[in-house]
Amino acid sequence: xxxxxxxxxxxxxxxxxxxxxxxxxxxxxxxxxxxxxxxxxxxxxxxxxxxxxxxxxxxxxxxxxxxxxxxxxxxxxxxxxxxxxxxxxxxxxxxxxxxxxxxxxxxxxxxxxxxxxxxxxxxxxxxxxxxxxxxxxxxxxxxxxxxxxxxxxxxxxxxxxxxxxxxxxxxxxxxxxxxxxxxxxxxxxxxxxxxxxxxxxxxxxxxxxxxxxxxxxxxxxxxxxxxxxxxxxxxxxxxxxxxxxxxxxxxxxxxxxxxxxxxxxxxxxxxxxxxxxxxxxxxxxxxxxxxxxxxxxxxxxxxxxxxxxxxxxxxxxxxxxxxxxxxxxxxxxxxxxxxxxxxxxxxxxxxxxxxxxxxxxxxxxxxxxxxxxxxxxxxxxxxxxxxxxxxxxxxxxxxxxxxxxxxxxxxxxxxxxxxxxxxxxxxxxxxxxxxxxxxxxxxxxxxxxxxxxxxxxxxxxxxxxxxxxxxxxxxxxxxxxxxxxxxxxxxxxxxxxxxxxxxxxxxxxxxxxxxxxxxxxxxxxxxxxxxxx
Length: 533
What we know:
alpha+beta; 8-stranded mixed β-sheet
């Protein structure tokens, strides 16, 4: 075992070296050895660790479990803030997953109506997220995108606190702190944190807080947490319906459970049927896209298990969805299955994901797990409690936790790649882009491509190229394919200091002419050229 400990130490040092140096390649005894991926080193480390624990599973003495949870919150916030900021600094964030929220929060912070210009509609015409009003102070900061990403990492890290407080009376402080650490290692949580910014993600700490408040009888905390959960998104009513089911079945509060379930249903129907259509000027757009084989309205989708049971069953039993369920449960040691009543709160959100035809909803690392994960974590605590009661059982809680930790590390191994210096440190291209964008006046309208939008969204008018070509005072684009006659798949050509962009669409339309204001690193800063006589 000492030899395995030495190997584990060497692998940890190797992973640090790969993260800092971007890997290496050496010839050893005439054999070319190449180590490039931190993920591969981590998987090897997990394999050795599994062997080490199989020989002798340690029983760590957690003397100050509260401090362990606090340290986990701090480490998670720092690590995932770095990963998220690095993705933004290296232009790997997206228009609708971050740029949209940057513009809306910036507008709210400046007292403006949240009319976003990416889709050119009121912000609540797409997703109803009144919780953004509480984030409006972030809109006054110089870097709104960075503020949102750090806030999200911190909020998700803090979810470990109510989980720990909730589990401590039932499992003891040491086991509860282990469950909190397992939460921070969860691959679904990692995927949610690193997928730009989503208000739905904020439901995770809010739901955990609400459930903890129920157990403690702190109704002054429960109701704000439940209402703020509804405020994250229009479909958060599904999560609150799950909260009501959990209160009803797992905690046996009949009247409260029914009231909360009714509140969730009321918000869901009001948002989908009235509020969003009011701002949109048309029906809610997502049912026809995501549940086309079950119906074209909320009522039809809800009743589909009764009206179309065969279609529902075939969907639930597909290989992709079964793998999705396994990926959700395995990092929790399948413990929620030992406490089905406690896991009942996850059923509405699981149904939302499993019945969809869009694969992103049943991707275990997507933000659509935000309404599922809190209930599975609480059910895992109940499963651990049930397991601990079986004193004569061969499988002990610490065995299950060890397997869950190893599984979590395997399923989240790709996350470690984002810690490599080359992945978060901006190179010459991103630095050149930042310099060019800084020269655009803050009140100017801009059209730009997908990746720079989040960097330029702190303004009234920002468009996704080629939209807004006729209304923008500036265009900021990657000109790497101008030699091939295009900018972002839009036909374009350059003649000296003038770039001509041919508008997409049928028929002959007047081309747009832009003069080059500045260029660097393959990026071009353009503004409309004077019309030739």
